[in-house]
Amino acid sequence: MGRNVAYVEETGRYFLFGHVFDMQTQTDLTEAAHPSEGRAAVGPEAGAGNPAGQREVSRIDFGLLPLQDAVVTVKGDGSRKIAVFSDPDCPYCRQLENNLAGVTNVTIYTFMMPLEQLHPEAKAKSIAVWCSADKSKAWADLMQRNVVSSGSCDNPVQRNIALAEKFGINGTPTLILSDGTIQRGAMSAARLEQALGAVKVAAK
User: Fold this and answer.
1) For residue 173, is the peptide bond before it cis, meaning its omega torsion is within 30 degrees of 0?
2) Is 72 helix (H, G, I), strand (E, B) or coil?
3) Please, how many CA atoms are within 13 Å of residue 36, restricted to the half-sphere of its CB?
4) What ranges in 58-188 are assigned the alpha helix state H?
5) C-beta separation of 3 from 168 below 8 A
6) Cβ-based burial of 58 (10 A; exposed 0-12, middle 13-18, buried ≥19)
7) Maximum Cα–Cα distance for the chain, whole Å?
8) What are the helix (H) ranges across 59-113?
9) Which of 1, 96, 126, 127 supports an S-S bond with 112, CB 3.0-4.6 Å?
10) pTM (whole model) above 0.70
11) How do residues 153-197 score in pLDDT, each as one tens digit?
């Protein structure tokens, strides 16, 4: 359905919209069902003159991301780069943050994307993190230790929500690797290391 996948059961009465995850393997079954999407590009030209392009949503030009609107966390030498769209009240996002603790030599750009319909307090928490003196620490404190800060200032949260909509990102957590590959769900540290390694090999 345009940029999205939907499911129905045999009677047609029940309609499921979104991604289906295998929580044991942390695998996005929807993504796996459409491997051709992994080679697609997203942007103003996506789908132009190509009807199939409407479903091509699994690669984003990393250079198009406004990194100045992200919370930046540098681990080790920071040589590898990933972007994460995350909601502070999303349990899978918190699980991902714990998994990321096992990954080093990476720069993480976190675009706070509160899903207000599901988590009405998430936007205020996101703004408070952005307005903290140390954004990276405030984010880690919130996600790993449930330490909620307070504060208000000019912030990019609404821009992040609009950015996610532009790229067809409608769920959290969503990860974007430096080659533009999209990964969804709370990836384990081992799977993320594997994905980052594949990006490095492809770059060579």
Assistant:
1) yes
2) strand
3) 5
4) 91-100, 122-130, 135-145, 157-166
5) yes
6) buried
7) 54
8) 91-100
9) 126
10) yes
11) 999 999 999 999 999 898 899 999 999 999 988 999 999 999 998
